[in-house]
Amino acid sequence: MKIDKLNLRDFGQFHEKNVYLHSGINLVYGRNEAGKTTIKEFIVDMLYGIDQLKGVGARFDHYEHKKPIYNEGYSGSMEVTIEDGRYIIERDFKNESKATKVMNLDSGMTVPLDHEHSLQGILFETNKNIYTNTLCFDQKHTATGRELADELNSYIVNMASTQSGDIDAVKTLDILEQKKKEISLKELADQVSQLNEKIDFETDFDKEIEKIKEECVKLDEIQSGTEKPEQKKEDLQEEKPSILGNIFVIFFFAILAMAAVVGLAYVIPIPSMEMKLGIMGFGLILILSTLISGLIRMGKMKKELDEQEIAENFEQEKTNYADSKEYTDRLSYLKSKEEQLLKKKKEQEEYIEACNQAKEQLVRNEKQIEAIELAMSTISDLSEEIYESFGSILNEKVSEIVAKITDRKYSAVRIDENLKVKVRHDNTFFSMEYLSTGTMDQIYLALRLSIASILISENMPIVIDDIFTTYDSKRLTETISHFREYADKQIIIFTSNEQIRELFERLGMEYHYVAI
Fold first, then answer.
1. In angstroms, rounded to a whole number, what is the distance separating the alpha carbons of residues 29 and 514?
2. pLDDT digits 0-9 by tens, 34-53
3. Distance CA 283, CA 119 (A)
4. 228: confidence class by pLDDT, cuts 50, 70, 90
């Protein structure tokens, strides 16, 4: 891919700013704060778009940082040339009207995008992480001292194992270790143990509650059948026995007796009628008086029996009523016990639920720790694999570049089995941290270009933004001379150093000059 034209319609401090670029080396000169970095970021944003962060961080992110200063618009275009023709990319970066359009300048046809706002897979294959960590970088990525040495060592692991400089595999080990420490096992185990001590595994609360309910039902049945003694006494007094049936029987036998007397009077020979009638009358009177006396006596006896029965029943009912108070007290006790059991049952259920949740969390934490340990082991094991596969190729490419840009002062770079970067001087390899900042910057550049040659198979522009601030004259000359090796690529160098243009002239190197 070759960038032909940039149109910063409304981006940062620019409005309708056009920048024309050529094949080969493009030297874009501008003083500090002229907008060189803004143009570099515009190139990246035209290729990959801008995603705004959410929350508090959105106020300070790249989207807000590059919003136009003087206009409400937020857009631009870029014309590029790839193997199958020329294209123009147009983007509206505003969230409210975000849009991406690609058109073939030769045919005028609009190119459909597989994924909204993404050109990856349409015009190029390289993802943003790889591109901005290898072929497109600025001064902010050039650390100093030990920080740069650590960044280089980490960079190799990240790029080799993840093919992304944004995914820090080295720091991931520290993060995983910290995460492992944060995951609780002992506290959860202690919590489970404490909850188990509180749980009553022997008592069947449902069964106990059911027993109480059954007893309460029986008591309610007994209590519903019990009346007060006073009321029962009145009922018993009202239930006097009827003797009507007995009266009919007595009359029947009385008639029989009178018939017998009359019969005897006629059967026994009595000469006088008057005497017969007298005997008959006397017998009748005797029978009637006996009948009346018997009835009176029967009535008295019946009355006495009834009164005695009523008294006995009354005493029995008094006793039953006394027993009903005991049942009431028992019922009250059972109700209270039931409430206590229900309360304790609920409490036990809460303990059991909390215990089960703690057990489940304990299992999840154990699995999480196993996963973390597996991940840590895998990342650690990658060091040897990377050394054998990726390391040997990278060693060769980086060594070749470093030897050229350091005038063969450092003839080789080695990445050992622990993924530590070492350089060779004379016959000795030593750690990067002992090198000067300028030398480390040179190796850092060589490392980026070498990794790009391994990971990026297509021709993408090399964009370098003011990285030569730590270079002395000799290093700068050696590094610029090395760019002859990339004559088939487009190189865009942003700089505020006027001597670099003079250096290109002195070295007789072709370049296209752009002043901002």
1. 6
2. 999 999 999 999 999 998 76
3. 144
4. very low
Domain annotation covers residue 411: no
Amino acid at 36: K
CATH code: domain of residue 72: 3.40.50.300
Please state the length of the chain.
516
Beta carbons within 8 Å of 290's beta carbon, 6+ residues apart = none
Extract long-range pairs of 141-146: CB within 8 Å, 24+ residues apart.
Answer: 141/467, 142/441, 142/444, 142/467, 142/470, 144/437, 144/470, 145/433, 145/437, 146/433
Phi, psi torsion values for 39, nearest 5 degrees: -65, -40
Sheet containing 421-425: order of strands: 412-415, 421-425, 428-431
Nearest to 9 by CA among 62, 82, 70: 70
Residues spanned by the domain of 86: 1-125+458-516
Full-prediction pTM beyond 0.70? no
Query: CA quadruple 465, 165, 487, 44: dihedral positive or negative?
Result: negative
**Distance spanning both ends of the chain, measured CA to CA:** 23
